[in-house]
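question for whoever is on the cluster today: can someone run the full assembly for these? three chains, 1106 residues total. i dont have access anymore since they changed the login thing
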Amino acid sequence: MWLQRNWDCNVILSKLIPYKVSNIMSRIGVFICHCGENISATVDCERVAKASSEMEGVEFATDYKYMCSDPGQTLIKTAIKEHHLDGVVVGSCSPRMHEATFRRACSEAGMNPYLCEIANLREHVSWVHEKCEATTNKAIEIVHGLVEKVKRNRPLDAIEVPVTKKALVIGGGIAGIQASLDIANCGQQVILIEKGPSIGGHMSQLSETFPTLDCSQCILTPRMVEVAQNPNITLYTYAELEKLEGFIGNFKATIRLQAKSVDDSKCTGCGLCTTKCPQNNIPSEFNEGLGTRTAIFTPFPQAVPNKPVIDKEHCKYYQKGKCKVCQKFCPTGAIEYDKPDEFITEDIGAVVVTTGFNVLKTEFFPEYGYGKYKDVINGLQFERLASASGPTLGEIRRPSDGQIPKKIVFIACCGSRDPAKGIPYCSKICCMYTAKHAMLYQHKVHDGDSTVFYMDVRAGGKNYEEFVRRAVEEDHVNYVRGRVARVYEKSGKLIVKGVDTLMGAKPVEIEADMVVLATAGVANKGAEELAQRMHISYDPYHFFTEAHPKLKPVETNTAGIFLAGACQAPKDIPETVASASGAAVKVVSLLSRPTLIREPLVAVVNRCAPPLFSTCVGCFMCQTICPYQAIEREEIKDRKTGKVLKVIARINPGLCQGCGTCVSFCRSKSIDIQGYTNEEMYAEVTALLNK
Amino acid sequence: MEENNNNFEPRIIAFVCNWCTYAGADLTGTSRIKYASNVEIVRFPCTGRIDFMLLLKAFAGGSDGIIISGCHPSDCHYTSGNFHARRRWMVFRDMLDFMGIDIERIRWSWVSAAEGAKWADVVNDTVDKIRKMGPYTEYKKAAMFLEEEKICHD
Amino acid sequence: MTKITEKATSLLSEGTVKMIIGYEMGTERPRPLFCHTAEECEKLIMNAECKNNLAVYLTKKEIIGEEKIAVIGNYYVVKTVIQLQRENQINLDNLMVMTADENGEVITFTTIDEMKEYTDTHEPAPDPKMVAALEKIDKMSREERWEYWKSELSKCIRCYACRAACPLCYCNRCVTEVNCPQWIEPWAAPLSNMEWQINRVMHMSGRCVGCGECAAACPLDLPIGLLCKKMGMDIKSTFGEWKDGNVLSTYNIGDKENFIK
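^ ran it for u. tokens below:
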């Protein structure tokens, strides 16, 4: 037997290998579309069809004017049935247009849809080349490549993944509240967990919201009550996510319920304990350190649930073993000391992360006093001063001596847009809330003088620009374009040294009674650990990363985990609510199906007979390559003894998105990806070059 | 350098990713921008899927040049496929160059789904360059080595 | 009795390990030795001539069995053990790793960190012949390099001794044995030999410890050690370190190249 080596050797050799039954027994149908004149004007479709009919393994080839039309599809279906085709190649427009159409047609004719491939003869051939023989030859070669590929295609079935019909929302701010309500109102179960003792988030700390100057708590608290009363929402406060295992539709969440030391079922929320507690000088977190609270406390009067918790770090009993006054006075005996944290596990179908953000404290700024000056405060602290339920009952007073400030300076962009401070981004909301603060001040202190030092005024939302103009024109807030180099204290006043760049960098010095810094919005502490616990990505600033910045702003790369609100990036309330509703709809669409149907174009680790079980050697170098954490460890156990014989890789078909990076990385070629297998791609490439 | 054969038309295979460059090439078609017909496109879900051996198979099969193109860094539809591909090419290219394989015949590019005009430029540039370089005969000769010593079994 | 023999004998007699892999003097040069008894331990040596990479046996269950063993190897053996552990191929509970310094003092490693510290500080000097050969190839033009490698690799007979000698080539089905599709043509010809070497070196990227056993094992003395060395140097200078996985299974957003436009 002559074994003649030439360029076709690969193809010849492959024909000799008995495995390649498909070459000899294939029955491929080739259908060349004229696409009206779109293809036929430059490509000789009849010649392509004729050449296709002469290709090895092609049983039937024809051309037609409009393959995607009803008669065209019927042509394909009839040919499949009459000629018993086991593969179809359609030479037509781009697969991105009609691959689904032709695959559906094949499926209706009884052939597996994944045995159908599309040759792009329009966008890649007829529309970009001149009418000549070379163009038709190229069309023939492309069809040949796909004929060889489709011979190796295997029938594939869509993957079904069961779905647990329950959602978990992490974070009880306005984003979490909105998302929970939207999901619950669609009839799905929701578990809402909040780290603090009450839901509400930063929105509950605000006095009035821009641009309408609505009372923040007035619009928020009805929603908070709705959450508590909605039968589909289970609310856990003082709770954190301990662990998240599983994958989309099948998560298992372990939640730590911190010991509140108060039995919610007995507590009536009368508040007597908070009036009796001797530890009453603890700086209040809700009031951003401007007021105090007791060790047993509710953060604010409208808290939901309105039941107190004991702060173990400041409670006399927990620290020194004495006191127990609250227990003595409690009329219902609801105080229970020394209970351990409880852990509960819940089966979850989808997760929405709404953990929110924080703003930098004044300690961050050496040029503005390192937080030493009591009258230099940040935006959130000003909100507490302006708030009717705040430490000064809504009057703007200096924290140092309680006097009403006559001159206030607002400094915008503190930390934001400053690469030197590690925060190059814009925090988005500060321009608006600074204008709001200045307006509120002017409304409360009619003879007050307010100056805003700004870089740019970013007021891009609906009615935002008009709002800022009102501050300037009606409330006479002075806007000075320039930065503030230093703030220092002198004889009880704060000396602000800034500059006015619109007056040629003229230095401006103001003796202010109070300075409000619009500090940068930053990710919450613990955001990195939470992201790692859930296996979602985060950016260098620890904001969580969306799947696509334009088209998938509420999804993450981890299937089944969604984002909403400021944990993704600083945003204002309307955007937060919109993203929360967006995430809710994604969750509901996921949970409303009995099973999740996914395209089967996923990677698979090979398996074979014992004692090898798989050619995978278990090096797990592939685990680091997968962006979706879809590669798991699988133990192969002896059936009788249960002893672990081998640990190999396994790809979770529910998580794999089908990129194929692990396939080309695997040294032993143990992983292959359905739809783009090694054999298929090899056959396509070699066939393109060999006639 | 090979002499320029007036009738020589290079054969070039392009390995592209489905989400960016394939869509970009579709846009070139929709925009009716004309380019040289020497290039045939093979579609992959992601540049990360492109096995480096396929490039060598393309050269051995008779290709005179290769184009590899995918999404711009940070734009990969699968987040990181093109980052892994980039590293793979950096190592592979050095290896090929060390062994004397002509890496000038391989053109790597990032073409996004909106860059229809750029795709046409990449194709035309590469075809012109390979045409001037001539066919990759030395590789094909090595692939045909055994033909010169016909092995005969009776 | 040398200190190595002393240590080995005591390990065997205490029953801590069932077998010790080390070196003994062969007819012309040192060779591996598998000791099960105190008598065999007397032959154990360690010197600069001990070049074989004993870690090649550590992935072969049929040789080392299921019980705890010890290996007294050279610098490269320790380095290979670190890499094998990273790739989940060995169980450190069942393996004692030791080496010996110039004075014959036995150094026992108990953790991977200790091994890493040792390999970071005791790297042997590069072989001047290799350095000179690499410089020579660097100066060649592309066509000269192609001719050089084509002529060298045309001698290759595809015995796969390089693969057998390499401790990190432990795949139970090598890529050359995959015939659907046939990635690397199985016959010996310059191009297919080049394909084999390219594949071998690409699979070694980021993993090769530089022991040089591949070149030492080659019956035709082909310069394949240069390929691994060159690749190792390039990767180290371009990519530095990576935390988990392999150089090609991780990435840096800042990876800089000048050829993708």
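summary bc i know u wont read the tokens: Chain A touches chain C through 27 residues (CB under 8 Å). The longest strand of chain A covers residues 239-247.
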